[in-house]
Design brief:
Helix content: over 70%
Number of strands: 0
Shape: rod-shaped
Number of helices: 2
Radius of gyration: 45 Å
Largest sheet: none
Structural class: mainly alpha
Strand content: under 5%
Length: 110
């Protein structure tokens, strides 16, 4: 049987095994506490959320401007079509009146 080391021997041997750690060159943020880490995460999420909201607003504004321009183009096209129809109707009315005058003149000559 292997003898178990006594607690004094364990402490003496463990203190000899602890490496000498030098923390120079490390920034204090590398040793953030969990609450600091959580706060940092919350700030990062809030910043991301604000950025996403700005992007969404910009996209909505771009979409709205594009849609408005498209609606204006459609309105202009509709107005042009309406003007063309009105001109055609006026021409048809003038042709009808002209035909009636020609017909009356022919009837009066006969």
């Amino acid at each position: 049987m292997v003898p178990l080391p006594s607690s004094t021997n364990m402490m003496a041997s463990s203190s000899n095994n602890i490496p000498d750690v030098n923390f120079s060159g490390f920034s204090p943020t590398e040793f953030m506490s969990p609450s600091e880490d959580i706060a940092h995460n919350i700030l990062s999420v809030e910043k991301y959320s604000r950025t996403q909201k700005r992007i969404a607003q910009a996209m909505l504004q771009t979409y709205s401007q594009t849609k408005l321009a498209q609606m204006e183009d459609e309105r202009e096209a509709d107005n042009e079509e309406l003007i063309q129809r009105q001109q055609q109707l006026q021409q048809q009315q003038m042709q009808f009146e002209h035909d009636m005058l020609v017909d009356r003149q022919r009837q009066t000559k006969c």
